[in-house]
Write a structure and sequence with these properties.
alpha+beta
Length: about 190
């Protein structure tokens, strides 16, 4: 329907111009002098010419739309029937395709290495007394870590059992001191075991 709007508008404009021309000739034909009559007739001829051109444009537009739709239908039918074939060009027949170069590894570019995940913990549950840092599980005292101290678990040393307590090796984030503490007084961060 939208393809018909332009031809309809062009035809309607041509019809209006033809009617206006007819009324202009009818009104001024006998009442004016000869020079004025000639001017009216020239304007009438010009408007009739424009009106005719608008009709021709409407018909041409409709014909072009019809030809385009027929070409699309023919192309679709050719694709369905398998009539369209692809022929190689002469350049491809004479020169075989060249292989693409293989990528080379640049030794100057650093390679990614896996980094260890740091497990953090907080000293909690000591009722304000602090947590004793020891040189070995159940060993000699090295110092006391106050409540809410942030520590880093040393992953190289697995948890150990001594005197019925699980011990973890840690590093104090403030002082850098390392030692063993009772695991029950540590609130382990996410992802730590």
């Amino acid at each position: 329907m939208s393809a018909l709007i332009i031809p309809i508008v062009l035809s309607f404009a041509g019809l209006l111009l033809a009617i206006a021309t007819y009324q202009g000739i009818r009104r001024g034909g006998a009442r004016f002098y000869t020079l004025e009559r000639e001017a009216v007739l020239r304007r009438a001829m010009l408007t009739l010419l424009v009106s005719t051109l608008l009709f021709i444009a409407a018909v041409g537009y409709m014909a072009a739309q019809e030809l385009q739709s027929q070409a699309v239908k023919a192309e679709a039918e050719a694709v369905i029937e398998g009539e369209i074939t692809v022929t190689p060009t002469a350049a491809l027949e004479v020169f075989p395709p060249t292989p693409s170069p293989s990528p080379t590894i640049d030794a100057a570019i650093p390679t990614a290495t896996a980094t260890a995940i740091l497990c953090r913990a907080v000293v909690e549950g000591t009722s304000g007394n602090g947590l004793t840092l020891r040189d070995a599980p159940g060993g000699a005292d090295l110092g006391v870590l106050p409540e809410a101290t942030f520590v880093t678990l040393i992953q190289d040393e697995p948890p150990q059992q001594a005197n019925g307590i699980t011990w973890r090796k840690i590093r104090d984030n403030l002082s850098g001191d390392e030692g063993w503490v009772a695991e029950q007084f540590l609130s382990l961060g996410p992802g730590c075991e």
